[in-house]
Specification:
Layout (H helix, E strand, L loop, with lengths): L4 E3 L2 E8 L26 H9 L4 E3 L15 E6 L6 H8 L5 E5 L2 E7 L12 E4 L12 H4 L1 H13 L12 E3 L4 E3 L4 E2 L3 E3 L5 E3 L4 E2 L4 E3 L2 E3 L4 E2 L4 E3 L2 E3 L4 E2 L2 E9 L2 E2 L4 E9 L2 E2 L4 E2 L10 E4 L4 E4 L7 E3 L4 E2 L4 E2 L3 E3 L4 E2 L8 E2 L3 E4 L2 E4 L2 H13 L7 H13 L7
Parallel strand pairs: 2-3, 2-4, 5-7, 8-11, 9-12, 10-13, 11-14, 12-15, 13-16, 14-17, 15-18, 16-19, 17-20, 18-20, 19-21, 20-22, 22-27, 23-28, 24-29, 27-30, 28-31, 30-32, 31-33
Antiparallel strand pairs: 1-2, 4-6, 5-6, 25-26, 33-34
Length: 402
């Protein structure tokens, strides 16, 4: 049953909407609403639900709505999913009354409505302007750039008033009060340094022998950090990931693997991805210039203003052993990359190939692989998932060589 807030005796339903930034967050939002982006320990949806004690639904693209539906009540609080909740913001959202809206500069943050969404007229609303600093995910690179602050917020949210599971005496801990193990989490003969930020181990996760970890760091449920891994903050492994090698300031959304040696830095990896052994990415240009990244809104490369920016990797994409990615590479959904030398730094969705060129990765083979990969995690690749990938395949055809 859908949970709710109560205001003036009305059932008040919370709906997370994509807002104006959805296209700037492609290719990661091809397969999910903005609310289901992971930054910090939790997804944005999980953060809001934890703060509000309320199950949320989603206003997103039509082709995603069957998997991520919206449920409307008589009264609804609409929340811009690109904003990360704070205690102060959540209190303001809870206290919204009918025809009131919260703004940050010109951006709508949240509003209370009893009308159908297409009938909302903000000229009739009372506006409240926020003067506090908020974390907002407006670009794909914000996910790793803001991950430090987001991990710290989530760590406090998840661990406040709670006691960690006992840490083995074989583990060398620095700033142990900022290290938290959930039930079933396992770590042995490792170094955990929480001097610069907290370290969080989710339920039934494992850090194997010989790992060296600097916080802020989070490893999700059932994820594994392989032997001898070197992890720099701020890094997040979502649930059901396997990661090894050297990782610096990267976010894995979940169900993805980089199980072997190789460097990954200042990067975001979606779900159902696999990076082959000794895959490496560059996160710094040889001339130390600011990195440009493919932007789906303008359909050209956009200056990030960052000196360090690595790899953005869409859901269901894979790469073979010894793959090299240049600084600021964007890979779409369901790409398969292999071969020597650097491939181009924008690889469209459903591309098959490498530096020598690409052909189209045809949908029957995409479906076959996705079904096998998800089955290994006891999940079903169903018709809804197929329809989503079919839509993305059609929408992104303009980027692939015909």
């Amino acid at each position: 049953m859908l949970a709710y807030l109560c205001s003036k005796s009305k059932l008040m339903n919370c709906i997370l909407f994509d807002g104006t930034v959805r296209d700037a967050l492609l290719p990661l939002t091809y397969t999910r609403p903005v609310a289901d982006i992971r930054v910090g320990i939790l997804t944005i949806r999980e953060k809001w639900e934890k703060h509000l004690s309320c199950t949320t639904t989603t206003l997103t693209e039509d082709y995603l709505s069957e998997k991520f539906p919206m449920v409307e009540f008589e009264a609804n609080i609409m929340i811009n999913a690109s904003f990360i909740p704070t205690n102060s913001l959540v209190n303001k959202v809870k206290n919204l009354k009918e025809n009131e809206a919260i703004f940050k500069s010109d951006e709508i943050v949240a509003f209370y409505t009893s009308n159908l969404q297409e009938e909302v007229d903000f000229d009739t609303y009372t506006h409240f302007e926020l003067d506090e600093d908020l974390l907002q995910i407006k670009n794909v690179w914000d996910i790793f750039s803001l991950n430090d602050a987001a991990i710290k917020l989530d760590f406090e949210l998840l661990t406040h008033g709670r006691i960690s599971q006992k840490i083995s005496d074989t583990v060398h801990c620095i700033n142990k009060d900022q290290i938290f193990l959930e039930e079933g989490a396992s770590v042995e003969i490792a170094v955990l340094n929480a001097s610069n930020g907290p370290i969080y181990l989710g339920k039934d996760s494992e850090i194997m022998e010989g790992c060296m970890v600097r916080g802020p760091f989070a490893i999700g449920e059932h994820s594994v950090l392989k032997m001898g891994a070197k992890i720099y903050g701020a890094t997040t492994l979502g649930p059901h990931c396997k990661v090894g090698g050297e990782v610096n300031n990267a976010v894995f959304f979940g169900y993805s693997s980089k199980a072997h040696d190789g460097f990954l830095g200042n990067s975001v990896i979606g779900e159902w991805c696999n990076l082959g052994a000794d895959t490496n990415n560059s996160n710094l240009k040889n001339n130390y210039a600011s990195v440009k990244l493919w932007d789906y809104e303008s359909e050209k490369f956009k200056d990030t203003g960052l000196q360090f920016c690595g790899l953005i990797f869409g859901d269901h994409s894979k790469c073979g052993i010894n793959t090299m990615f240049n600084t600021g590479t964007v890979v779409g959904v369901s790409a398969n990359i292999y071969g020597g030398n650097f491939p181009r730094n924008f690889i469209p969705s459903f591309s098959w190939g490498g530096s020598a060129g690409f052909t189209t990765y045809q949908l029957p083979k995409v479906f076959e692989v996705a079904e096998k990969v998800m089955e290994r995690r006891d999940l079903v690749f169903n018709e809804i998932d197929k329809n989503i990938l079919q839509h993305i395949f059609d929408e992104t055809s303009k980027y692939r060589a015909q």
